[in-house]
Design a protein that fits this description.
Length: 251
Amino acid sequence: MYQATFDSRGSHIRWTEVPGAEPARVFLHGLGSMSAVYHAHIAARPELMGRRSLFVDLPGHGTSDRPEDFGYTLRDHADAVAVALDAAGTAGAELIAHSMGGAVAIVLAHRRPDLVSRLVLTEANLDACPPSTAASSNIAAYDEEEFVEKEYARVLAAVGPLWAATMRLADPRALHRSAVGLRRGSDPVMRTLLETLPVGRVFLQGGLSGELPGRESLEAAGVRVVTVPGAGHNVMFDNPDAFAAAVAGTD
């Protein structure tokens, strides 16, 4: 395991990695998740082996530290990931990012273009104020203390055992602030940033999730949108063959 200090109080962002050729692939997880849990089985597939792979846990999640005075905005998360990638000595990496991690990856690519050569986004959050049915909206609907003291346990019980297995490792305060930051979005908003980024961009949409809003505009801006059959939000679990092919660029 590797670590780098991302704030003035000595808090660490941590990652594990598989050695291999550059450019590296950097995997980022969604809200309440962990990178290795969601992506290690993909990086180990034969068509993806041989490349350096980093599995980064965002602040407040997984193995990374969870400072109480950290903001956990999209920009905060992106800057922390940039610290990790600088410490790892990787530049021009391919970012494979899921859900909230996709929003973080977009902000990172905007703020530190030297670190990113390609984005593979899985059902990434592109807009502020997601639908009320989104998990981030449900969490952000409470004020911080109410969520930490009362609602965190209720949310854990409601999300089901698979997501709860990693969400229970996330700090409740970090989880809430991350959800609030995701709901607020970036400035300019993530969709606008994605349409203007000068790197290769792939967006994976689960076929069971419905049509991607604004697909035509994204495609007109050069984003390759792939609808993955038989998959919901967690494409890497629901259709790993299609997911691996998109990461490898062979789909």
